[in-house]
Amino acid sequence: MRNNLTILQILLIAAATAGATIYKWVDEQGVTQYSDTPLKNSKSQPLEIEPERVPASPETEKQLPTESWREKADAFRERHQARQQQLEDELKKQRQDAEQAAIRRGERTPVGGESGATQPLQQAVLSTIVMLFSAKAPDCTNHKIIDTELIERSRRPRQYVERWTVDRCGQAVRYRVTFMPSPRGGTDFIVEAE
After folding, report:
1. C-alpha torsion 24→26→30→31, nearest 10
2. Which secondary structure element, helix H or strand E, spans residue 4, and what is its range?
3. Which of 31, 89, 154, 169 could staple 140 via S-S, CB 3.0–4.6 A?
4. Residue at 52 is within a domain
5. pLDDT digits (tens, 9 = 90+) for 21-75
């Protein structure tokens, strides 16, 4: 009996590793037999043997936690970026509100981009734009300079052309602003809608 059990174990291990089928039958003497081939003229039954799961190699085991850590790191990075974006949006809104309040008080004109105009000259240009537009839409009082861009520099000193993009109550409108020396001293400008 012990001998049969040992043979069975050897066959089961060999079959499991090889992926082969094991057959079971009872011989004429009533002894249960196991084999990898079915016996002819007998009622042999195939046994379903679950293949033994081989433990992961040390290299695989090291990779599994790494993937888990990668997923955690990615999730952390996404949460961090979302928080950063939320903070940036809040700061941007606060800056815009402060800029609008300063413009209404006449304290300053926030200009993005590059402009050769001094701050008082920028304020004068924005006031001219507001005057031009207020005739078309008197209920719109929210004007903000989004961007300025130097598009042309003349050979004459202190003469240049800029493109100003202004947010007029939620609508971005471009203006061409030409600066030139004034015959009376200082700088004159011409504002044209593009």
Report:
1. -30
2. helix 2-18
3. 169
4. no
5. 777 878 778 888 777 777 676 677 776 666 666 666 656 555 555 568 888 888 9
Task: Determine, yes or no, domain membership for 90.
Answer: no
CA–CA separation, 12 vs 4, rounded Å? 12
User: What does the alpha-carbon distance between residue 170 and residue 185 come to, in Å, rounded to a whole number?
Assistant: 36
Instruction: State how many domains the chain has.
Output: 2
| Residues 116-144: tens digit of each pLDDT | 787 788 888 888 888 877 777 778 777 77
The verdict on residue 40 lying in a domain is yes
| Alpha helices (H) in 54-171, listed in sequence order | 58-105, 119-134
Of the pLDDT bands very low, low, confident and very high (cuts 50, 70, 90), residue 81 is very high
**Residue 3 CB burial class (10 angstroms; 0-12, 13-18, ≥19):** exposed
Q: Give this prediction's pTM.
A: 0.42
Domain assignment present for 188: yes
Do 143 and 166 meet the contact criterion of CB atoms below 8 Å apart? Answer: yes
